Amino acid sequence: MIVIEPRGDISRRMQTAIPVIAAFVALALAAVPLAFAGAPIFPAYWQMFIGVFGSVFSFTEMLTRATPLIFTGLAAALAFKARLWNIGAEGQLYLGAMGAVAVGTGLIDGPAVLMIPLVMLAGAAAGAAGMLGPAILKTRFGADEVVTSLLLNFIILIFVQMMLEGPLKDPMSMGWPQSEPILDSAALPRLMDRMRIHSGLIVALVAAVIAQIALTKTTWGFKIRAVGENAAAARHAGIGVNRTLLGVACVSGALAGLAGVSEVAGLKGYLTTDLSPGYGYSGIVVAMLAGLSPIGVVIAALYVASVFVGADSMSRAMGVSSFLADLVVSLSLISVLVGGFFARYRIKFAGKAS
Amino acid sequence: MENPVILTLDGLTKRFGAVVANDAIDLTLHQGEVLALLGENGAGKTTLMNMLFGHYTPDAGHVEIVGEDGVVSRLPAGHPQAAIDARIGMVHQHFTLAENLSALDNILLGSESLWTLRRNRRRARTKIEALMQDSGLIAPLDEKIGALSVGERQRVEILKALFHDARVLVLDEPTAVLTPQEADSLFAALRTMVTAGLSVIFISHKLHEVLAFSDRIAVLRHGKKVGELTTADADKSQIATLMVGEETALPERKACEVGSPVLELSGVTVKRENTRNSLNGVTLCVRAGEIVGVAGVSGNGQSALAQLISGLTRPDNGTIALAGDVVADPTPKGMIKARVGRIPEDRHHDGVVGTMSVAENLVLERLGEPDVQRRGFLRKAKIAEHADELIAAYDVRGPGAEARAALLSGGNIQKLILARVLEKEPLVILANQPTRGLDFGAAGEVARRLMAARKRGAGVVLISEDLDEVLSLADRIVVMHDGELIEADTRDRAAIGLLMAGQAA
Questions:
Q1: Which residues of chain A does B310 touch, with a Cβ-Cβ cutoff of 8 Å?
Q2: Is the Cβ pair B353, A225 closer than 8 Å?
Q3: Nearest alpha carbon to residue B184 among B147, B218, B151
Q4: Which end of chain B is more exposed for a tag (fewer CB within 10 A), N or C?
């Protein structure tokens, strides 16, 4: 008979070790399909490594890729801390991008010190509104936010398409469904010459630090943790459970919205419907890899971005599919979850109970 | 009884931590007999039956069953399948039916091998229809369970046991969910089956149905069998006394200056779908310096009363007033502000956030206060200091202030909650089952703290299923039955026991 027993407290060292071990386990497991694809394993992984750390350009590309993942990872981590399952970061990202485009493409103009905060505010507000809806439906009617926030993603994407074919369409785009370009004064400044890396990364890092402080050192963070860990006890103790959930929903949506702002105003310059290759969904993976810790989100986002960028480079050099990146990320998540399970429980094989 | 013995429980003992749920209980059941297992909530009835059925493994003792051939065999402990094979059927208080399957499928569930490709449903249906004919327990076999009434579901459960050729049928509080008419027809059907040779053990705390239906009564109290008698020779007050216990010497309770009313409920009605959350025109006045004990069998509205005083429920009708002021919009926060201290019934579920630290749990109810936060930032040093003081003052034992609250034992979690509630010197204290599941020492500590609060001038509402506790602590006793409060003008156990069972004294 197999008996699963809980262990005692998990040490902090164990908690940080698990994701690191899981990352390596995932890479080891991914070697199997890699071998099937006919690529020599160690050179392939070397290419992957070079693809991220081999040059300043490739390293900044990785950081550029990590930027939206930090935002969406934070969005998921904060919401999940309160057991609010925001699966709609992808949609909120597009809402944020649309907010930025609505304000930053000529509606108003001013100096950059004014325009950049304004664009970010507009995007954050739009993203917040995107999650507020599902949160209200949850607190008012008990509607499952997993379903509502997820399905809203598709509605929002079609809405963006409609806007890009209509009011937001750039008349100079030769018929392509894309928005007018963001004004120079509203664009997030580049951090290095001839590199795509932009100051959205700085904003993301600041957001992560603020989120970490908010979660661990403020009464608001206390309430989030209490509501997430035991809503019944929180309610009994006079903590406004619904109010906390609505607040978290707004902040989570705003962070996802900032991912959209950062992509549009920092990287692409205009909005199209292929702005995000699923950053909203990857953010969930990032948050889970990070164990819902904001600082952990930064590290996890760097890891996931490295896998993506490195796998791209590997696929070009070795002629294997870049889908391997998705595989490695998925395996990492599974390894972390399994690792977490083994950290919490031990498995005993006992003889048949008499 | 001339009939042969069919089942023997021999010295069954079950401990949960420090609590002895069943203490060396012996019981015999004869063929064609109805044995009632009577006792208050928490007396150990369900635990005993769960051991019989193999859900729990006893710490000591064993179960013997006499086969049809007269061979006595010992049931292996902890194997429900062995109990089923020995033809013992159990109908749980909370049904174990799959709502998305039909009644027929539910009855067949578990009786078919996974490897059988063809289901022989026609033969099963014939057998069940014959059973329904014989017993008078009619249920629509093709309806999904989800569409059936509670009474019908129960019949399906019983049919399921009978389908497995049960010779012994155990019914756990079978009438708790039934209307009186349904209960009557259930008993009529059971009677028919008993005449045909079935043996029945039924668990109850309702005196009248025990007296009306059983042949023999075994009374449990605090995990011990305290009496066994033939129903024909029993009378109500004798059984009530057995159930709630003999008069014991009460600890000395010094008289207290009773002050002005601190909590007044007048004509409070709370309507909910089920009775356990409903109140019906409840009026209660608690004065400063007194403990009002609310006795009663659980599920009679105590939780509604507790939710009301906790601010978790609003009255549909009537008012609730604190120190003379009507509370317009009761919320947990408002109640805390108005100095109502609340000790919840389920301390793990409502009392603490298990994954947060002891120190954090100690400030759970006072996040807005200046010594907990400054401009929204937690004052960690102050919180830790506060925790150390309270841990010392209330003797909360565990791995320390920074450890997760879930690592504490039940008694220490309760001390943590007491510390949190009492440090604010509340005007009103709601103590809902404050000693349930606690060992002797921790329970004594809780009692001592409540007495001290009373002395300080707090008004205490003590809700408890343990009549001993109510009698020893309360200055005044009210009994809750079916959502209504009845003032007990007596401290006589038998009289209170009758009130608890819904019988006028």
A1: 236
A2: yes
A3: B151
A4: N
Tell if the CB–CB gap between A237 and B331 is shorter than 8 Å.
no
Residue B505's pLDDT is: 47
Please check the confidence at residue A1 and state whether its pLDDT lies above 70: no
Question: How sure is the predictor about A2, in pLDDT bands with cuts at 50, 70 and 90?
Answer: low
- On whether the CB atoms of residues A182 and A270 are closer than 8 A, the answer is yes
Decide if B360 and A222 are in contact by the 8 Å CB cutoff. yes
Q: How many CB atoms lie within 10 A of CB A172?
A: 9
Domain positions in chain A are: 12-29+40-349
Highest-pLDDT range among A16-30, B32-46, B246-260, B372-386: B372-386
- Radius of gyration over every alpha carbon of chain B, rounded to an integer in angstroms: 25
Question: What does the alpha-carbon distance between residue B285 and residue B324 come to, in Å, rounded to a whole number?
Answer: 11
Closest CA to B178 of B200, B157, B201, B199: B157
| Residue B250 pLDDT class (50, 70, 90 cuts) | very low
Q: Report the amino acid identity of residue B128.
A: I
For residue B291, give the nearest of B431, B437, B440 by alpha carbon: B431
Record: contact A235-B356, CB cut-off 8 A: no
Q: Tell which wins on pLDDT, A353 or A253.
A: A253
Unique residue bearing structure tokens 């998305």:
B100
* Distance to chain A for B75, nearest Cα, Å: 12
Give the gap in angstroms from C-alpha A48 to the nearest C-alpha of chain B: 40
How far is Cα A55 from Cα A80, in angstroms, rounded to an integer? Answer: 36
What pTM does this model have?
Answer: 0.78
B407 touches chain A (CB under 8 A): yes
Q: Test B404 with A9 for CB contact under 8 angstroms.
A: yes
Residue A6 has pLDDT above 90, yes or no: no
Average pLDDT over residues A107-117: 91
Q: Are B456 and B272 in contact (CB under 8 A)?
A: no
A233:B367 CB<8 A: no
The answer to ipTM > 0.90 is: no
Q: Where are the alpha helices (DSSP H) in B249-357?
A: 302-310, 332-337
| Mean per-residue pLDDT over chain A, rounded | 91
Residue B321 to chain A, least CA–CA distance (Å): 19
Q: What is the mean pLDDT of residues B95-101?
A: 86
Q: Residues B136, B188: contact at Cβ < 8 Å?
A: yes
Closest C-alpha to A68, from A162, A231, A196: A196
Tens of pLDDT, residue by residue over A33-86, are: 888 888 888 898 899 899 999 999 999 999 999 999 999 999 999 999 999 999
Q: Which of residues 86-145 of B touch A (CB under 8 A)?
A: none
Which residue type is seen at B346? D
DSSP letter (8 states) at residue A268: I
Structural domains present in chain B: 5-244 (3.40.50.300), 249-339+425-505 (3.40.50.300), 353-424 (no CATH)
Q: Which residue has the tokens 């939710």?
A: B307
Kindly give the interhelix angle for A12-36 and A41-53, rounded to the nearest 10 degrees: 120
- Window B:193-232, CB contacts with A under 8 Å: none
Q: Does B249 have pLDDT greater than 50?
A: no
Residue B184 confidence (pLDDT): 82
Look at the domain A12-29+40-349 and name its fold: ABC transporter involved in vitamin B12 uptake, BtuC (1.10.3470)
Interface test with A, best of B314, B353, B417 (most A CBs within 10 A): B353
How many residue pairs from chains A and B have C-beta atoms closer than 8 A? 75
The end-to-end CA distance of chain A, in Å, is 11
> For residue B351, which residues of chain A lie inside 8 Å, CB to CB?
233, 236
| Six-digit token string for B434 | 């404050």
Which chain A residue shows the shortest CA-CA distance from B405? A9
Our CA-based measurement puts residue B361 at a distance from the nearest CA of chain A, in whole angstroms, of 9
Q: Is the dihedral of CA B338, B339, B340, B344 positive or negative?
A: positive
